[in-house]
Amino acid sequence: MHVREWNPATAPGSDLEAWRLLYNEMLAADMPGEPHWRADNLRAYMAVTMPDENRGDWFAEYDGRVVGVADLLLLDDLGVVEVYVSPDHRRRGVARTLLAEAVRRAHESGRTVLGAEVAAGTPATAFYQAYGFQLTCVEQRNLLDLATVDWGRLREHATRTGSGYRIEYFPGGPPAELLNAYATAKQVVQGDWELHPSSYSPDRLAHSLATLHARGLTPHVVCAVHSRTGAIAGLTEVVASALHPERADQYDTVVVPAHRGYGLGLAMKARMLLELRDAVPDLRDVQTWQSMENEPMARVNAELGFVADREWHEYEASVPALAAQLGI
Ligand SMILES: CC(C)(COP(=O)(O)OP(=O)(O)OC[C@H]1O[C@@H](n2cnc3c(N)ncnc32)[C@H](O)[C@@H]1OP(=O)(O)O)[C@@H](O)C(=O)NCCC(=O)NCCS
């Protein structure tokens, strides 16, 4: 087996295609039903990071054929690793070798914690546990199949809000003149949910939006605006990807506490789905990791037709301990 580092920004298209084929092979084996990734924008998706982030990418090859990949994202305080191995090359130490590369890089870069996020029920859980990764968080993915949506009812929800609010849709993200009010709304509810990306200052928010666009991801935003003051009373964000246009990601939904109880959460999410139906013609479903136990968001999601799909597990391990175990 031969391991080589590669750079998604400069690699030939054949490397990107090898990564994509392996990823889709993994999806077919471990997560049937998951939309396969298309080639559109893959280079930008992989190569562009936030200004303060770095990444490392490795291939494991047999006879010139890619049989495993590892991707490492170096964030401020930790590294996040993903390892995938072709189903017909498993249990031969390919992932272990790739993990060792990622651990070496994380170690050299001064990160002391390595994280991994995996779909429950896949071999990845046993793999990370074998190297001492500890479960730190369990999230429930929920899916809304658009084929099950009652669009007439949704239209009613979208228009039924307390008087004094208007619901506005912004394809591509909030406009520049709303960035301050938008960041303020996010800040007010900071701590309510694990928000992603954590973009509370207008600057950070502008960077996040620019990064999303540069990666070929399209944010769609619906805001509830308090008409008298112009304040953002609530917002919901969905991100569509050219890589898998059939499935969009629900990001944050927040209603500022002073404006809760007026039906804004349901109205914003309903309006979002109505807009997405036209804006993203290939869209089949929307996924969210917002907790179904989080009242009142759970009620809103259930009313819209989101159903629990599968669990995702977040793991963490100490980099020095991993380095010792892997003989680095
Ligand atoms: C997890 C994965 C990367 C492991 O790849 P691999 O090359 O087979 O792993 P290795 O051979 O290096 O295994 C190293 C050790 O991990 C553990 N391990 C790996 N796969 C395991 C499995 N299916 N069951 C139990 N233990 C496992 C074992 O301890 C193994 O050592 P051993 O074979 O000497 O017992 C591979 O199964 C994969 O790509 N899975 C899908 C990834 C995924 O998470 N998909 C969902 C998206 S997040």
TrEMBL record:
Keyword entries, A-Z: Acyltransferase, Transferase
Q: PANTHER family annotated for this entry?
A: ACETYLTRANSFERASE, AMINOALKYLPHOSPHONATE N-ACETYLTRANSFERASE-RELATED-RELATED
Organism, as annotated? Longispora fulva
Q: Which Pfam families match?
A: Acetyltransf_1
Instruction: Describe the location of the N-acetyltransferase domain by residue ranges.
Output: 1-156
Q: Transferase: present as a keyword of the record? A: yes
Does the record's keyword annotation contain Acyltransferase?
yes
- Quote the protein name from its UniProt record: GNAT superfamily N-acetyltransferase
Name the Gene Ontology molecular function terms of this record.
acyltransferase activity, transferring groups other than amino-acyl groups
